[in-house]
Amino acid sequence: MFLSLLRLVSLRHLLQAPLRTALTVIGVAVGVATMVGVTSINRTVMEAFRSTVDTIAGKADLTVAGTQVGFPDEVLQQAREVQGVLHASGGLSVIAPVQGSPGESLYVMGVDLLDDGYFRTYEGADRELGALTEDLEFLNSTDRMLVSERFASEHGLKVGDRFGLITATGAQDFFVHALIRESGPIKAFGGSVAVMDVASAQAAFGRDRVLDRIDVAVDPKVGVEAVRENLRQALGPSFEVERPSRRGSAVETMVRSFQMGLNLGSGVALLVGVFLVYNTLSISVVQRRREIGTLRALGASRLRIRALFTLEAVVLGGVGTALGLPLGVLIGQAAIGAVSQSVSSIYVKVNARDVTVTALELGLGIALGVLGSAFAALWPSLRASSVQPVEALRRDVVAGVQVGSRRPWTLWAGLACLAAVYPLTRLPPPQENLPLGGYLSIFLVLMGATLLAPTLLRSLWHVYRRPGEWLLGVSGRLAADNFARAPVRTAVPVSALAIGVAMAVCIAGFVGSFHGSSQRWIQQAVPADLFVTSAARMAGVQNQPMKPDLGLSLEKLPAVDRVDHVRILPHELLGLRAYIISLIPEIYERRARPIFLEGRMLTQEEWSAGRVIISENLSRRRGLHVGSTFETSTPTGVRTYTVGAVALDYTSDQGTVVMSRDVYRVHFQDERVDIFELYLADPGKLEEVRRAITEAYGRQHDLYVLSNSELREEATSLVDDAFAVTYAMEAVAVLLALLGVINTLLAAVLDRTREIGLLRAVGAARGHVLRLFVGEATLIGLSGGLIGVLAGTGLGLIVTLIVSEQSTGWSFPYLFPTGVALQMSLTATLCAAVAGVYPARRAASLDVVEALAYE
After folding, report:
1. Which residues neighbour 751 within 8 Å (Cβ) at sequence distance 6 or greater?
2. CB 63 within 8 Å of CB 247
């Protein structure tokens, strides 16, 4: 029975309005596609990181790791002597930038070929690799590698060919000794992997007698947990001893807030798509009121009517989902590069490029698309089932009904949503980097604005009436009247537009506020004239650390006064992946003007004694203040540091510790430099000095030489790139909302066919009808823009002052994005007006006689 009703009643109605049906299906499809694409991207990025950790570990039961700078290879012998260790092999991994390919890196594995086969096996593509331990040409060279087939294919390399990598001493040529298939550990890092003998890798990359990993096989008679405890006791707290699958949890926690932001943006797009379903069914209830009355008179129960409209929504959602799933795969493939690059620039180097959609993403897409559409049908189906047969069959009742009138409960529900926002923002995060209260507050602001929209539209009618008449004459006044006549129906496209505008204003407010604060910080705390980095424009995750000798050469250049040697080391600190920043105190004291929140600039004696300056977010996250002490592991053992000051610092959203370079070199046994900061005796010779550096050392070290203003621009670009995918999703949400405007106005043409006929019969020209509907669309766009700006301001405050502080520890004042707010309001208004042209032309082209006869 249900299927017969669906085929004879619902499907017939949907096919009679093909454009409106298509717009609704497209809305659901794009919403589902965005959600599926983003979810698959987030999973792929994390899997790429975990895969690198897991596949490199091979068959190891435990992995021993030290700091990012590694540890002496004597530790390997200590590990081998621990009770329960069946086998142990040391290794060194280097992510080396590829010369001539900006942004691309090769994961180089240095392994001991004599015993590495216990944990990993390599399959040669063109030769047997079993005799590598006797291949003296390979073992005795520092420039020969086994290269993955994928990397060789992408770079057009074959056995014997030469290619360049950037090392600590500059560019160095390496030779393809043999090709290895992409299996086992060679699947790591997206397949861009090479293998060297560990001693050769140490020499080639300036890491003499240093390892960064020990793979351990455990005697099953002793057990993994017992051996892990034995290793911890034997090696000390400086080393992390974990199962390979558990490594990297700090990175996953760190990236969580970034991924939550992407999920929020995709959720908004899906929400707007569901709004289209709700709008379509709400309109359908009114237009088919006589039909529903007939079904009720023939014996159809209320439950059957509800089921009919719910099934109709499920059909729309199902078709949209079926189209959205493959589109989601395309979105994932198109956006994975941008997201992977953002994660690599800000958090940790990953090489994610092959997106696959699993059953989890498919199930999520189906559930959200179909069930979301069914949820959208709840209220329209209840209204349909409440139709009384006798009244519905009366012509005058049908002609005078409108789609939804203002309901008092929506006002109170909207106010309740907004009232709950503040208490939720006070909730502490249940986990690190998870501001759950802030995200719930964002949802309630959007829901509150949606529920209050009908009431706000009633109020705006008084505002629009006179200006509309002044601009468009009688057409403008009628447009304002029609705009407010069915506030609930009009509120749907207005709300959808408002959500898109609100998210754009919210993100612009947060990004603009962060830009303003970070720019002031760079100007005051990092005032160097020139910044020299290798292999990346900014020091951080992607650059190649350099030997300090280059800094000594730079200091001898004419017009160069001083050169600071700055090392920025990612380091596991108090459960966070923070940065240890080492620099020369004398230069920092004289040149920089850091913004201190607690304490003052340290004296030479305090720097030498191991006092440090910590960032505001590290202070807030771990409750550290001036005088507090904390411990951290170093290659020379666990060291204790005392907080001498707390300063504003935006280097890392996990926290930073600034210490003397001399102290760092002793404790971390690391001489390398990430960035040379040059202070010029004559700033007017900046371009001359830059040219001299580039000509003398640029090619050899793949150098980037940026001025202070260029560094600030690069920092701005980095943040903008991180939000590029989110901006695209908000644009999708606005476009879907415009589909809702078209949908609503097309329905209005049908609802008011007789009215249009009367207007034309009493002398209204086609241009009058055209202006009437375009004016109504313009008012929808203008209202969506205004409500969106108001909601976006609230969201911006929540994201900047609550979500940001809870997920990063940073606090900075909120700056209202005036330019973006005006731009989005104008864009929403103009785009809605354009979207209203087609329905307006449909209305203007109606035949007067047929319109008067329309029921």
Report:
1. 283, 286, 287, 402, 403
2. yes
Give residue-wise pLDDT tens across range 603-633: 999 999 999 999 999 999 999 999 999 999 8
- Any idea of the CA torsion for 63, 67, 68, 72, to the nearest 10 degrees? -80
Beta bridge partners of 217: 87
Range scoring the smallest mean pLDDT among 227-241, 289-303, 396-410, 640-654:
396-410
The phi, psi pair for 137, rounded to 5°, reads -60, -40
Strand partners, 708: none
Q: What is the DSSP string of 165-232?
A: EEETTEEEEEEEEEEE-S-GGGGGGGG-EEEEEHHHHHHHTT-TTEESEEEEEEPTTT-HHHHHHHHH
Pairing of strands 170-180, 144-148: parallel
Give the per-residue pLDDT at 1.
Answer: 52
The angle at the Cα of 238, spanning 111 to 223, to the nearest 5 degrees, equals 70
Q: How far does CA 266 lie from the centroid of its chain?
A: 10
Q: To which residue do tokens 């299927």 refer?
A: 3
| 757 contact partners, CB below 8 Å, separation of at least 6 | 846, 848, 849, 850, 851, 852, 854
Contact 774, 840 (CB under 8 A): yes
Task: Count Cβ atoms below 10 Å from residue 427 Cβ, excluding itself.
Answer: 15
Tell me if 433 sits within 8 A of 450, measured CB to CB: no
What pTM was computed for the model?
Answer: 0.81
Rounded-to-integer distance, Cα 518 and Cα 818, Å: 19
Cβ–Cβ < 8 Å for 630, 640: yes
Distance CA 692, CA 831 (A): 52
d(CA 310, CA 375): 8
pLDDT of the residue at 378: 80
- Per residue in 464-503, pLDDT (tens digit) is 877 877 777 777 777 777 776 767 677 878 888 888 899 8
Q: What is the 3-state secondary structure (H, E, C) of 83-130?
A: CCEEEEEEEEEEEEEECCCCCCEEEEEEECCCCHHHCCCCCECCCCCC
φ, ψ for residue 223, nearest 5 deg: 100, 150
Identity of residue 535: A
CB-based burial, 263-289: b 16+ in 10 Å, e otherwise: ebbbbbbbbbbbbbbbbbbbbbbbbbb
